[in-house]
Amino acid sequence: MIMRYHYKKPAIYYSRYGITYDCNHPVYHKCTLYQIGKYGLAVIQQRYDETSKTTWWGEIDPWLTDSIYLHPNFKSFFDERSRMVDDGLYPTVTIRQLMWALKMKPIPRQRWETCFDRRDI
Fold first, then answer.
1. How many domains does the chain have?
2. Is residue 11 situated within a structural domain?
3. Domain assignment present for 4
4. What is the pTM of this model?
5. Cα–Cα distance, 5 to 27 (Å, whole number)
6. What is the mean pLDDT of each run of 10 residues along the chain (121 residues)?
7. What is the distance between the alpha carbons of residues 67 and 104, in angstroms, rounded to a whole number?
8. Quick check: helix, strand or coil at residue 101?
9. Taking every pair of C-alpha atoms in the chain, what is the biggest distance, in angstroms?
10. From the CB of residue 110, how many other CB atoms can be counted at a distance below 10 Å?
């Protein structure tokens, strides 16, 4: 059952903002990176493999990238949390942390999802 208060995938979407970034982070190896000037913010989303019953963190769904970047509160969140690259890594947030901070409707939560207890990943 899908609730009305969840963010729904649009029928037509563009993905102009955010890039897929490969790195050597201990939690993930790919993320969606938002960059403004020298500063960047990595955003990750958890995935699930039905066959092996494993989860991993990676880049966010492409239909979310523009909605997040164009949100009126994104720039202030970005300014607060972003930093310059440090040893190939940028500060990281999960898609849920970001959507809640922007006061966007969240994507539906899956029962296999985990979360981070701390602000910094």
1. 1
2. no
3. no
4. 0.88
5. 29
6. 65 85 95 97 95 95 94 97 95 93 88 78 75
7. 9
8. helix
9. 43
10. 10
